[in-house]
Amino acid sequence: MKLYMVPLAPNPTKVMLYIAEREQLGTRMGIEQVVVNTVKGRHREPEHLARNPFGTVPTLELDDGTYLAESLAIIEYLEEKFPEDALLTGTAEERNRARDVERIIDLRLAGPMGAFGHLTNSPLGRPPDPEGAAEMEEKMQTPLDYLENLLSDSRPLLLGERVSIADCTLQASLQFVRYVEADVFGDRPLLRAWDERYRARPAAKAVLRW
Ligand SMILES: N[C@@H](CCC(=O)N[C@@H](CS)C(=O)NCC(=O)O)C(=O)O
Fold first, then answer.
1. Which of 37, 56, 57, 176 has the fewest CB neighbours in a 10 Å radius?
2. The pLDDT of residue 123
3. 4 has which bridge partners?
């Protein structure tokens, strides 16, 4: 299998963190990672559009030559393909609580975080827009409070002792925020401590560059 990705971009990074976490647990997936340079516009060239008509990364090429184009579908495919030590384990309640938190992060936080980064200090050279950035910051407050509250029972990671897909998705967006030299935590010490703890994990050290 091949994972078409680009470092720094949140959606590929969440899959890369997931794969690295599974490798730390002993699963060898044998996935080759291939960079599609989005800064140079390679994701919009025919070669990548033939893999994924939406021109996005990540894209996973399966062994049968077909592709998956959505980061969560890629993760869930790998969970099913390599079920031993899968991250989504436990009871139906435990598995779907992890999915719930991951979806909340992806659907309520990742978008405003990415937009905030581009409106503040865009790596693509877009002009800063303080008003737009403030709007995005406002949108982040409820999901950030939700995560701070989740951590209030002293759990080390978002779903407890064991790493989850929610940790991967949140950290992937936070790397982008660090890259643009912003800080979105505000007065949320538990989230800040989680961030430090997560970044000290071997999987995070192997994947994160910022
Ligand atoms: N829903 C998709 C979103 C993928 C996505 O938008 N990826 C971004 C990088 S984080 C991308 O490829 N952007 C380039 C573009 O849309 O032109 C997923 O979860 O994989």
1. 37
2. 87
3. 34, 59
> 56: Cβ below 6 Å to ligand 1?
yes
Q: What is the pLDDT of residues 124-161, one digit of tens each?
A: 889 999 999 999 999 999 999 999 999 999 999 999 99
> What one-character DSSP code corresponds to residue 82?
S
pLDDT at residue 124, rounded to an integer: 84
- Which atom of ligand 1 is nearest to 71's Cα? 20
Q: Is the CB of 9 under 6 A from ligand 1?
A: yes
Q: pTM for this structure?
A: 0.97
Closest approach atom of ligand 1 to CA 44: 17
Indicate if ligand 1 lies below 6 Å from the C-beta of 10. Answer: yes
DSSP run (H or E) holding 171: helix 165-179
- Rounded to whole angstroms, how far apart are CA atoms 13 and 120? 21
From first CA to last CA, the distance across the chain in angstroms is 26
| 57 Cβ closer than 6 Å to some ligand 1 atom | yes
Ligand 1 in contact with 164 (CB < 6 A)? no
Nearest atom of ligand 1 to the alpha carbon of 6: 9
**How do beta strands 59-61 and 2-5 pair?**
antiparallel
Instruction: Kindly list the structural domains of the chain, giving each domain's residue range(s) and its CATH number in brackets, ordered by start.
Output: 2-81 (3.40.30.10), 92-201 (1.20.1050.10)
Q: Give SS3 for 183.
A: coil
Shortest-distance atom of ligand 1 to CA 72: 19
